[in-house]
Amino acid sequence: MGMGSALETLCGQAYGAKQFHMLGVYMQRSWLILLAMSACLLPVYLFATPLLRLFKQDEDIAVLAGRFALYMIPQLFAYALNFPISKFLQAQSKVLVMAGIAAFALVFHVALTWLLVGYFRLGLPGAAVSLNLAWWTVVGGQFAYIAMGNCPGAWNGFSWAAFTGLGSFVWLSIGSAIMLCLEFWYYMILIVLVGHLKDAQIAVAAVSICVRISNELGAGRPRAAKFSILCVLISSLTLGIIFFSLVLAFRDVYGVPFTNSADVVRAVSDLAVVFAFTLLLNSVQPVLSGVAVGAGWQWLVAYVNLGCYYGVGIPIGGLLAFYYNFGVKVRSYSM
């Protein structure tokens, strides 16, 4: 995701400059880079269990996460193809098409999950198969839309030009990767640290639910001018306030759709106030990050993320959670 975010800057600027043919070239360059990065990430998937053991995580969590990581290798490569396609379409304001394909994939995913997990009782492998097929459905649907000629001028077929100019593209990609990795690794580091708390399985489950939903609800990264920024901030903040209110109103049942453990549901309920404020802040922060990406300020945001997340958040969270024994709730406050 980090390496692919360079495409947000380049596709947006190319479309604005009416260099439509470069959109397809940029997308193909991004495919090459992201597929190479996916291959580099394979060892993390293959050796997830020993890596988690190295970080002293709960044994059951380490084993289960390691198994699931192996099942999800196809999704890794699907995401490497999907992210550039999404940015290619987004730069051309093909948002409704993306929404339609995503909606179809969602219905397909839910139905297949019920069939494999609920009806055939295949458990974790069934969930993984459903996720993988859903991701590849999105990739196939989006690329089919492009290949059928719905992006004239922007897609002219596969081109050898994708293999040129990779150096500057990689440099911007690295800046994007550092910016986003510093943000997302922060949440993952929190979950790893929470794995050292008392009742680690419950704590990890509760924080993971909160982090995952928070990331998904705040995933929009628009590129816009001043008026558009204001509109997006207002709309995002409005949605943030709505979800803030919903989380507080349904705090006692919020975790029910995500787990069958009563202890985890209670832990999520205890974190509801913290989680609600996190959602509110996350409704604004990704918009500002998106503006920075659109302007090509990835390296600047990388420095800001480094200072805020790692210079302030993790040290304070670790001090309060472990030294003062405030546990998972204070760890969440540092988010």
TrEMBL record:
Keyword line: Membrane, Transmembrane, Transmembrane helix
Domain of life: Eukaryota
Subcellular localization, as worded in the UniProt entry: Membrane
The keyword Membrane is annotated on this UniProt entry: yes
Bilayer topology term: Multi-pass membrane protein
Spans traversing the lipid bilayer: 31-55, 61-83, 95-120, 126-146, 227-251, 271-293, 300-326
InterPro entries named in the record: MATE_euk, MATE_fam
GO CC terms, sorted: membrane
UniProt-listed Pfam families: MatE
GO-annotated biological processes: xenobiotic detoxification by transmembrane export across the plasma membrane
UniProt KW GTP-binding keyword: no
Alphabetized GO MF terms: antiporter activity; xenobiotic transmembrane transporter activity
Family label: Belongs to the multi antimicrobial extrusion (MATE) (TC 2.A.66.1) family.
Protein name, UniProt field: Uncharacterized protein
Organism of origin: Zingiber officinale (Ginger)
